[in-house]
Amino acid sequence: MTANTPTVLSDDELAERDELAELSEAGEVDARALVAEQLDEQLEDLDDDGDFDDDEESGDIELIVLDMAGTTVADDGVVERAFALAAERSGIATGDDFEAALQYVRDTMGQSKIEVFRVLADGDEDAAQHANAAFEGAYAELVASEGVAEIAGAADVIRELRGAGASVVLTTGFSPATRDAIIDSLGWHDLADALLSPADAGRGRPHPDMPLTALLRTGASAVDAMVVVGDTVSDIASGVNAGAGFVVGVLSGAHDRDALEAAGADAVIDSIVELPALLGLRGE
């Protein structure tokens, strides 16, 4: 086998190669410097425009899941009064058992009402269904006779959030029929992108089903882009269990600040009207 003869470069060729190498290295350095300079300029432009803020509470918010009663809809004790009527009519909690049952209703505010009645009925499905039907009927009667009111400013907040580019879904532990009666009374048709009850999602709170169903219904890209807001520990737990990027408690309903924070709320505000500013979605 004959060995390859090494290529011999002239002095001029060697000088040309060294010059090209130097130019290549300089070019790479200049290119990297140019990219870095362009990135710095882009970041400065974003900062000047107010679109880049390290202190902002949220990133790109695509979906906001709002509870109804106690968060966007004033409760004013209607749930407890409806339960009292249901207990009387169904016999599910009478005499000495009534106060303990009422306290359980308070503690589980926000949860699917049929699940609450299953516990109170000690697993008797027929009794639970009867009591739940009595509750839904009593609640509908109270709404029809007394009307229902929004938490002050709630509808405007929902419009503002949607105007800022976020989808808004209203969720509740009520049945679809009761939920729709509330929406009818408020005249909130087409106010939100979707309405969800446990029956629409699979399970109620504190399970993650309703927030995750909201995400699928609206086409949000990830749970990190979702905010969940509510006034009960069940609302907060549902958001946490769904992996929501930000979970907010409000003090306009059932549970206090300590309970909401203990449940995992990232922030607690007095009312829904503070939400746009908290999320950085209000130009102030």
Automatic annotation (TrEMBL):
Does Hydrolase count among this protein's keywords?
yes
GO MF terms here are: phosphoglycolate phosphatase activity
- Which keywords describe this protein according to UniProt? Hydrolase
Q: Name one Pfam family in it.
A: Hydrolase
Q: Does the keyword Hydrolase apply?
A: yes
GO terms under cellular component = cytosol
Residue ranges annotated as transmembrane are: none
Tell me the GO BP annotations in alphabetical order.
Answer: DNA repair
- What protein name applies here? Phosphonatase-like hydrolase
Source taxonomy:
Bacteria, Bacillati, Actinomycetota, Actinomycetes, Micrococcales
